[in-house]
Amino acid sequence: MKKILGIGNALVDIIIMLTSDTILNYFRLPKGSMQLVDASSAITIEKACNKLNKIMASGGSAANTIHGLAHLGISTAFLGTIGNDEMGNFFHDDLKNAGIVPVLSRINTETGRAISLVSPDSERTFATFLGAASQIAEDQLKNNIFQEYDILYLEGYLVQQSDFMEAAIKKAKAHNMLIVLDLASYNIVEAHIDFLKEIVEKYIDIIFANEEEAFAYTGKNNPFDALHQLAAVTQIAVVKTGEKGSLVQKGNNICQIGVTRSTSIDTTGAGDLYAAGFLYGYIHDLTLQKCGEIGALLAGHVIENLGAKIHSTRWNEIKNEITRIMQQSE
C-alpha cells in the first residue's frame, strides 16, 4: 500500500472560542483568513482572549491531514521544524502517539503556534506565529526519506518558504512521487500567485482548494469554471464548496459530492480531514465519487468538535462507515 510523506509548518494550535467577532475587528484580522503575526502580537492576542474557552493541540494543515491518514491505517511521516521547548515536545509526542514517523529538526527558536479564533458561526480565523516552522531548511530533505514514500503531501502555506518548497517538490519528482498540494488560504494564494501557478503547472498531480482559494488562483467566480481550470493543469482537481459539498474533476470526468450531515461547532481542520479521506480512497483505487464521499465523511466528523482532530472514540465508527461506502455499488 502507498505511503505518504507530509511536509508543512509544525505548529501547536491554540483554539479559542469567540463570543463575537469583536477581537477579529480589533486586531484587524480578516474573518476566515490566515495572517502571520510576530511573537509579541501572538502573546497580545492570547492575552486578549484569556477569559475565553480554549484548547491546545498539535496542528498545522499538512500535519492535520497526516494525522487523519494515520488513524485510518496509512503509513505516514511528517517533516517539519520545531523548537527545543515544551511545545516542541508536545508536537513530537503527538505524532508518535498517532503512529506517524516524525522527521523533525529541532532548533533554538520557539515552536510555532497557530491561534485559531473560532467565531460563533463556526468560521475560523488564524493568527499564526511560525517560529521554528519558518526555519525549515533544504538540508532536511534527505534522499532516504523520499525513497521510502510514494506520495508527497504539501500545504500551501509553505509558499512563504518558496525556495524550500520548490526544492522539496523537485526532490519528490526525482523519486517519482505523486505530489499533492492543498492551496491553504485565499490571501496566501493572492500574495504568491505567480510562484504557485508555476509550480502547479509544472509539478502538482492532485490539488485541493476551497471556493475562495480557487477564485484567488483562477479568477473564476463560478466553482465549476475554477475546477475546469485547475483540472486542465493537474491530474485531479478538487474544489470544496462548503455546505454545498465538493467538486472533483479528472480529465472530462466530473463528480459532485454532497456533505455528511453534522452539527458544526468549529470548521477548523475540515479541509485537512477532507483531504485525508479523499487520499485514503485514492490509495485504495476507489472512484472519484467514493474518494469524495470519504473526504466528506471525515470533514463532517471533525467539525462536530473543537479543533482539527477527530476524537479517538469516533474512529471505529468512521472506519465502519468507510467500509460501507467502499462496498456500495454506484
> What is the total number of structural domains?
1
The assigned CATH architecture is: 3-Layer(aba) Sandwich
The side-by-side strand order for the widest beta sheet comes to 6-5-1-9-10-11-12-13-14
First-last Cα distance: 24 Å
| CATH-defined topology | UDP-N-acetylmuramoyl-L-alanine:D-glutamate ligase
Task: Please tally the helical runs, counting DSSP H or I stretches of 4 or more residues.
Answer: 13
- The CATH homologous superfamily corresponds to Ribokinase
SS elements, strand count: 14
Instruction: Outline the low-pLDDT stretches.
Output: none
Q: CATH first level: which class?
A: Alpha Beta
Helix content: 40-55%
- Spatial extent as radius of gyration: 18 Å
Beta-strand content estimate: 15-25%
Note the overall shape: globular
Write structural notes for this entry.
With 330 residues, the protein is an alpha/beta fold. The protein has 13 helices and 14 strands. The protein is 40% helix and 25% strand. It has a single domain (4-10, 59-110, 135-327), classed as Ribokinase (UDP-N-acetylmuramoyl-L-alanine:D-glutamate ligase, 3-Layer(aba) Sandwich), CATH 3.40.1190.20. Strands 6-5-1-9-10-11-12-13-14 form a 9-stranded mixed β-sheet, with helices on both faces.
Key traits:
about 325 residues, alpha/beta, UDP-N-acetylmuramoyl-L-alanine:D-glutamate ligase, nine-stranded mixed β-sheet, five-stranded mixed β-sheet, 14 strands, globular
Write the layout of secondary structure elements.
Elements: E1 4-7, E2 11-17, H1 22-26, E3 34-36, H2 39-48, E4 54-59, H3 61-71, E5 76-83, H4 86-97, E6 101-107, E7 111-118, E8 124-131, H5 143-147, E9 151-155, H6 162-174, E10 178-182, H7 186-191, H8 193-203, E11 206-210, H9 211-218, H10 223-231, E12 236-240, E13 246-250, E14 253-257, H11 270-283, H12 288-302, H13 315-327
Parallel strand pairs: 1-5, 1-9, 2-7, 3-8, 5-6, 9-10, 10-11, 11-12
Antiparallel strand pairs: 2-4, 7-8, 12-13, 13-14
Helix pairs in contact: 3-11, 9-10, 11-12, 12-13
